[in-house]
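Amino acids appear as letters; backbone shape is given numerically. Here is one record.
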Amino acid sequence: MIEAGIVHRLGHLELGDVSVAVAVSCPHRHQAFDAGRFLIDRLKEVIPIWKKENWSDGSTEWVHPGTDEAIEGPGRKP
């Protein structure tokens, strides 16, 4: 790998919005794809990315990074 960069967006995102971009420079395409997969997997392991779900009934809940478990909030029951 010659060079790499990762950008993760912050704030409110609509469903389908791009939240992360990974760019990799390598001598060969397969190396670039492997490096990109490694970097996105590593990002998920190292950075605690919390996700706030906003439901149509107005309630919200936080999804803990690294799990599919939601943290119960007001107005939302598991």
Q: What stands out?
A: Residues 50-78 form one domain. The chain has two domains: 1-47, 50-78.
